[in-house]
Write a structure and sequence with these properties.
four-stranded antiparallel beta sheet
């Protein structure tokens, strides 16, 4: 599978990188506990990030008009973002055209698990296998009269891929867990063990205290240490974009 980024004349200083697993707020958390959540860590690096080429500040007055958002440049720089749609939306323009394999869409969204105060990223699904179009990355202010700072090198856009039509092929159903007796038994066993572990965490000197957290999902094993017959990933190794002339 290929993902090609075509640069329109000057790339504007935009850098694209595989998304890292680290997050500042996770580093700052007590005992860096969020890193124990494998689904969270896997999501962090599930694609590529586009980095802001320069630092700038933006502020919204709370109104719907185009001039409701003001972008303030740092001296000697040109911000990549403008007010284009109104409605408190900050729009990043990128001189980049992406191409994916036939039938593959590009999911354009904000940096995953990286919240930003007073502004939220909007998500788009781009049919990037046929159009000659470049696209924008948009953020919606959630609070007026608050200065928002984007720093040089800060990710402002996250890219990942999805097969077009895959969701339409899914047959979602709801049924009682008793419809799958083995799953029901396994879940009951897990819930009992989970409750005991959490209770034991409160006991000084307990095995649970020493372990700190249960690692069954992290290790891809059941409560008895048995591995499951499927691919279990604890990290991703995405290729960086190769620059070619």
């Amino acid at each position: 599978m290929e993902l090609i980024c075509y640069v329109i004349e000057d790339d504007g200083g935009f850098e694209i990188r595989p998304a890292p697993h680290r997050r500042d707020w996770m580093d700052d958390a007590h005992q860096r506990a969020p890193y124990r959540c494998l689904p969270l860590v896997m999501a962090n690096r599930y694609g590529w990030e586009i980095l802001c080429p320069v630092s700038f500040t933006a502020i919204w007055n709370g109104g719907p008009s185009l001039d409701g958002v003001v972008v303030l440049e740092d001296r000697g720089t040109t911000p990549p973002a403008i007010s284009h749609f109104g409605e408190g939306i900050l729009t990043f323009r990128m001189p980049l055209v992406f191409r994916t394999d036939p039938g593959t869409d590009l999911i354009v969204q904000g940096p995953i698990n990286q919240p930003k105060d007073a502004i939220a990223p909007l998500t788009g699904v781009v049919e990037s296998d046929w159009g000659p179009f470049n696209f924008t990355m948009n953020w919606k202010f959630t609070r007026p009269k608050t200065a928002i700072r984007f720093h040089k090198g800060e990710p402002f856009c996250h890219l990942t891929l999805a097969r077009r039509g895959a969701l339409e092929s899914v047959r979602p159903r709801i049924m009682p867990i008793s419809a799958d007796p083995q799953l029901e038994a396994d879940h009951r066993e897990w819930a009992t063990a989970r409750k005991k572990f959490n209770d034991d965490l409160k006991v000084q000197g307990s095995a649970a205290r020493k372990a700190g957290w249960q690692k069954h999902y992290q290790q891809g094993i059941d409560l008895h240490g048995n591995e499951k017959p499927f691919l279990h990933l604890t990290k991703t190794n995405l290729r960086p974009f190769e620059r070619k002339k």
